[in-house]
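so my prof wants the structure for this chain in the tokens format not the other one, which i didnt know existed until like an hour ago. anyway here's the sequence
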Amino acid sequence: MKLAVISDIHGNIEALNEVLGDVDRRNVDQIVSLGDNIGYGPEPEAVIETLCDRGIPSILGNHELAVKEPAYLEWFNPLARKSHIKTRECLSPQALDYCRGLPPTRIVQGCLCVHGCPPDSTITYIFELSRAQLARIFDRMDERICFVGHTHRLEIIAYDGGEAKWRDPVDTAVQLDPDCQHIINAGSVGQPRDGDNRAKYVIWDTETYTLTVRRVPYDIKVTADRIIELGWPEFYARRLW
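here's what i got, hopefully its the right format
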């Protein structure tokens, strides 16, 4: 089975459409979103509609959490808070209910899916954790594979039962060690932060135990211009480039 894992779309329908077109050409069996479908980008309603129309399951991201629990918005920086307020103004009652109803985790094809950090944190960044903390998380994790997002950066962390080791994903298929557990960051569709402005997602092949990174170009200018046109923080338009 081939599983496409997308994350951090952030209201960028241009990027999402190009990614889904790429997915459709890869003979993928299933797609899952790791949350933060909204925030920063100008088309949150269209993104949610597309996920629903395509039957793509999602989990709760920290931007959906701020819809579900408005008090959490106080943890956002001022620009992110302004963007979130604009996002809420763009969402229909149905879309708001969708955000509130997302679960914090899912098990898909035997893989744990969580936005921030296993076992179920929506807000914890993987890079905040020490090697010792990661080892304890792996020891308590039943699944061999966990997919996360949140940092907007691709990453693979392998654990052999004694030590956590990091590696950067490459464009070719990466053979993972079936004797190790792995936490895999799927990067970001709508707002990459790794110096490459193409939309990112990964494909996990459960039969060959390989991970493939896909880097998909899209029309950034359309999204950037729309952000400015709607009066959202210009910073998030510039950041796309």
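also thought this was worth mentioning. The first strand starts at residue 2 and ends at 6.
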